[in-house]
Each structure stands twice: as structure tokens, then as C-alpha cells.
Amino acid sequence: MNNLIFFSTNAVISHDFDVTDSDYQYHNWFNLTKGLEWPSHTTSRVHQLNTPWSLAPTVCPIPKLIHSEENFDNVIDSIAEKFCHQILQSGKTPYIAYSGGIDSTSILVSLLKTGNTNFLEKLIVLYNNNSIKENPYFYHRFIEKKLQTQDINTLNIDSLNFDKIVIVDGEAGNQILGWRAIHVHSYYQNFDFLDQPWRTVSDLTTAIPGSTAFTVELIKDSIHHAPIDIETVYDFIWWANFNFKFDEVLIRKVPGYAKNLTAVQTQLFYNHGLYRFYAQPEMQVWSMISKDQRRNSTRNVISKWAPKNYIYQFDGNDLWYASKKEEASYSGLDGIGSKLIAIDNQWNKYSIADPDVRKALGKILQRI
Amino acid sequence: MGYQAQFQFLTKGRFALVDTHFRNIWLVLDNQEHAHTIRNVFRGKLSLLVCDLEVFENFQDHRDQITSHTCSFWQLPTTSNTILITPSMANPIFGQTQTKYHSLECPNLVNKTASCLLDQNRQLELQDQLLLYHRILELVDIANLTCANSVEFIDQVNKIFSIEIHISDIVDQLYQLTITQIGTINVLPSCILTTLRKSLYE
Predict the structure, then answer these.
(1) pTM of the model
(2) B162: domain range?
(3) Helix (H), strand (E), coil (C) string for A193-247
């Protein structure tokens, strides 16, 4: 159990709650998730963490500042153009996992704007009933009877098709665009706090509700390696999410997608069968260079204004634009669950149900 | 030109439909079940909680003053329950009536207009949609229909309200749907036509 790209502290806690006890030597790592929406798998994209378990390098390094485009619409349009071109050249079938939330809707809009007839005839929208409930106007105007659709629960990825399809989803949207901790401060109108230089805040655990002094130290350590200046409390919160949570959101649905695949096939599917718009280098750079405009916007409009405005310009639905909040959309895919403890960089999975895994875990965590 | 309200029926009650972020009250009702039905049908247009206003200390004093005509001038205080701040379809708490709304400092309803990203005309139009739909729910209760045709008809009505975003489109489509059901389903279609101020004989 080495070179892990995923290690679920929550899965461990669900089987051994005492790891959160303050007497236990590694308890800090297991208490991180008390912070609002802190990932169960913690890794830094810019420096090596001193975890008790052996972490592999990040699955998604932070890109260099390769462009200076601050307009969200132009960035997502260019990614869509590139994606459509690649798909038509590859001959693969494109799917979009559509939850009806802001992130996947913005991606679908970009494909509808950019894709030619040939592409749109091939595109299959994966959805469920919740996708329709989230935005009935959009579904009935732009998807129903206009695009191919398939209930996501009927999607079966196996050895026969895993290399013939590409799935687009909205994962990493929250890391690019905001975070619940920012939304909570916006609700309480703590705008001056968000604007404040984080170095002047005496207790930074107030920035992320539920976080600990250890959380704050991890974030501060990582800021030394950040490619851009992290100045305000808003930056501090956004950076924590952008740096520490990216890997988890890219990995968390893969076991569900790839439940019928071998480790080798899963690795190939992860690398070539998933296309994450919000993890593309261009989008990550946009997130880094537009953080001030996003911070300023928290005073006037609620979170994720950039993709919401992008969608509104396309569909004209002012009610959804005005009321839609950042929220956890439900895709219908199986979650990672509490059995899966870890995944290594060869996509071998480690389950708590395996006695050998339990023994290895006991040694790593000094529990035996 | 400003929007001319068409369906400003008077409603009162302890159950409020409240915006999750800005906390402004869109509608007050005495029928809890209707409040949840409205919340679900308007899910794509409004992000709402159903709150029991009895938990606020000053509600009894203002109960008669907080009506569908005045509720937009009232808002809930902030809650200390951060779970309630960001709605999630996966979290069953949002499908429940909020009876333990933990306020931070103020245990009272606040007589103040909240922020809204819609202009006043659009807010009024949206409240008209809510009130029209609520009136139809009342008519459905009165008609007490059980036939398969009526179930299908009510589903179609719900679909119109969930998909369409402008009151003129809602009224047009309701009229087109309803006129086809006259004589097929008892009472309800003609009651809806009357509510829409449309003639049965046109």
C-alpha cells in the first residue's frame, strides 16, 4: 500500500473511530475532515505532505500561468472547441454527466455553442430524475428530444467499451469557482473579513468553519509554494480548496465508473476516457488570475456568478440565474463508500474487507 | 412599463416559503403540504426552504400582518445552522419543514426587505406564479378528483409551472391544456379557466 493517489481518512474513521482521539499520534490527519467540506483524501498539489501513509505525487499538478485571459466565457469556449475537435478526430463517443447543476450545465452550454452538427449528433447526455428537477427549463428547452439521452444508472463501462468513450463531467468546478466556506461567509455578509489580508487574522480557523490549528498550518505551509500571491482571506479559503481538494474530486467517482474494469483498464480510462473541463490547465489558470474579480463579486451576487452568467447569456433564464445556489448536485453514481480505503498510482484498490489490507493498514497507522 | 399583478390572492399562515440565501419570505400559507408541493414544483426557479414561523418569538404579534401581500417586506434572521445555507437535493433536511431554525442573535422575524437579484417587477411576477399555482392546488383539493385523466392533467399543470419562467407563457399553456379537458374532467378545468379569467365559451 504505497504511492497512494487516494487514501480515505473517513473510511478509516468509520471502522476505527479512535483514530480521532487526541491521544493518538496521528489524530491530526483524521480530524482534518471536521473542517467544512475538507476532503477525506488530503494531498497538496505543490508540496509533499508528511502523512503516515505513502502518498504518490498529485494526479493533477498546478499548471504554469500559460495565458492571461480573464474572461470565463472565452476560456470555457476554447476548451469546448478543443474537446469537440479531439472527439471528432478520435472517433470516440462523447458523454456528458449532466446533474443539472451550475458546473455541468455550463459545460453543456459550451458544447451546444461550439459543437457542430456531427458532434452534437454523437453527444449523449447522462442524466437522472434529479438532473431534470434541478433545472426543468433547461432540460426541456435544450436536451429533451434534441440530444441523445441515457439514464446514468444504465451506463455500463466494461472491457468492451472503456476505450471507445469519453465522459465529460463538472468535477473540480467548486475548486475553480468557489467553495462552501466562501458561500457561508457570503451568507453572513462577512465581506470585510473576506477582503482582509489573511496574515492579519489572529485565528484563521474562523476562515474555514470546523477547521483546526493543524489545518491552518498545512495551508500556510502550502502557501509558501503557491505560484501566485495568496493575500486575502478569500484567497486563503479558495487556495485551500484549489490545492488540497482537487485530487479527491477527480478520483472520487472513478471507482463507480470503473467498477467492471481491471486496474490497468481503470488507469487507461482515467487518463483517456475522462475529460474534466474544470481541471484543464486553461481553466486552472483562469481560476488563479481571476480570484480578485470573484472576491469582489461576492458582495453583489452569490457564488459562481461567472458560469451562471455564461448560462444566462445562452438560455435567458433570469430566475435560475438569480436563485441557483452552489450546492452538492447528485449524479446518481455510486460514491466511494466506506470499504475502499486506498488506491495506488497503478489503480490497485485496497479494501478494508481484505485481511491483508487491514494488517498493512494497522502497521502504517501504528495500530498494532 | 411595470408588471401588472394578476393573481394577488390573499394568503396567510404559519408556513413560509423562504429564500435559502437572502431569507426573504415569498409566500405564507396555512397548508404545510401545499407549501412543500410549491417548493418542489418551483425548484428550478427558486431555492426555497419551508419554515414554520411559529418558532419566531414575534410571529404571534404579527400573524395577521404577514400575508401574501406583505410578506416580501419580512425576512428571517440569519441561522447558525450552516447546513441550511446551502441546499442540496441529496440532503433530506431540505424536504422537511424547518421547525428548529437556530438564529444567531435575533429570535424574531425581521420587518425589512431583503436583497434580491430580480427587479421588483420580476419579483411581483414570480409571486403571481406562486399564488396562481397555490390557487390551483386549492381547486384540486376542492375538486377531489381520483380518475386517471385528472392525475395526468395535474401532472401536466405541474410541468407547465416547473418549466415555464414567464407568467404569460404559463397562462397561455394552462389555457391550452385546460380547454381540452372541459367535459372530460369534472369541475377543475372550468374552475381553472375562471381563475385565469378566461371564458368557457370562447
Answers:
(1) 0.94
(2) 144-195
(3) HHHCEHHHCCCHHHCCCCCCHHHHHHHHHHHCCCCCCCCEHHHHHHHHHHHHCHH
